[in-house]
Design goal:
Length: about 100
Amino acid sequence: MMKNPPHPGELLREDVINELGLSVKEVAEHLKISRVSLSRVLNQHAAISLDLALRLEMAGISTARAWLAMQLNYDLAQARKHRQPTIERLGLVNNI
């Protein structure tokens, strides 16, 4: 697992939209979402939602599962940067 994975919006902007030579407006219209909503994701101010992940999959841009995994990896890395309380392990017989 990467310690500092990129936000999936950055990957979407750089590796998909810019590579295809498309505008944010064109992609937003194609995905049937607002330009503002897409811009928030591309500028790392919002997460890739389940809905957006499905729309990207329908547009042939990887799978919804891949986009959500990227978002989860990013979110976990961000959470690990914050101080966490000390938590004692539970004495469970079977690990979950």
